[in-house]
Write a structure and sequence with these properties.
The chain is about 15% helix and about 40% strand. Strand 8 and strand 9 form a beta hairpin. The protein starts with a strand and ends with a strand. The chain is α+β, with helices and mostly antiparallel strands and about 130 residues long. The protein is built from three helices and nine strands; from the N terminus they run βαββαββββαββ. The strands form two sheets. Strands 1-2-7-3-6-5 form a six-stranded mixed barrel. The chain has a two-stranded antiparallel ribbon with strand order 8-9. The protein is globular. It has one domain: Acid Proteases (Cathepsin D, subunit A, domain 1, Beta Barrel).
Length: about 130
C-alpha cells in the first residue's frame, strides 16, 4: 500500500512557530503486517524527515536471539491513500529496501481490515 510518512502534527507546529522549514512527507510503500505488534519506518525515512527520537524501547523479533533489542521510537503522521491520517509512535527498523514502513497492530487496531483470499484483494477502513 502506498503511504506518506510525515513529521507528527505537534512537531510540524513547533517547526512552523520557530520559522523553520517543515520537511516534505516521504512517500513509501507500507506493508500491512498483522503479526507486527508495532508499526515501523526505516532509518532512511527517519533521516529524510529529520526526525529526533522520542524514546527507546525493547523488542523481540522473529528469528532474533533470545534477548530483546533496543530500538529508537519516533512520533510520525501516516497518511494513507484513503486520506486517513494517523498519528503514531513507530520504531526504527531495518525493512526490505522496497518497503519504507510497516503498519502493525498498533495502527491496525483502529481499522476494519477485510482480506478476500480468493481474489487477493484487501479493504481497509479507519
Amino acid at each position: 500500500m502506498n503511504a506518506a510518512i510525515a513529521a507528527s502534527s505537534p512537531a510540524e507546529l513547533a517547526l512552523r512557530r520557530a520559522g523553520m522549514p517543515v520537511p516534505a512527507p516521504v512517500s513509501v510503500t507500507a506493508l500491512i503486517d498483522t503479526g507486527a505488534f508495532c508499526s515501523a519506518i526505516d532509518r532512511d525515512t527517519a533521516s529524510r524527515l529529520g526526525l529526533l527520537p522520542v524514546g527507546v524501547t525493547l523488542i523481540s523479533a522473529p528469528g532474533e536471539v533470545a534477548h530483546p533489542v533496543r530500538v529508537l521510537q519516533y512520533a510520525v503522521r501516516i497518511v494513507l491513500p484513503t486520506l486517513a491520517v494517523l498519528e503514531a509512535t513507530v520504531i526504527e527498523a531495518q525493512v526490505d529496501e522496497a518497503i519504507g514502513a510497516v503498519l502493525g497492530r498498533d495502527v491496525l487496531s483502529s481499522a476494519v481490515f477485510i482480506y478476500a483470499g480468493d481474489t487477493g484483494h484487501c479493504t481497509i477502513a479507519f
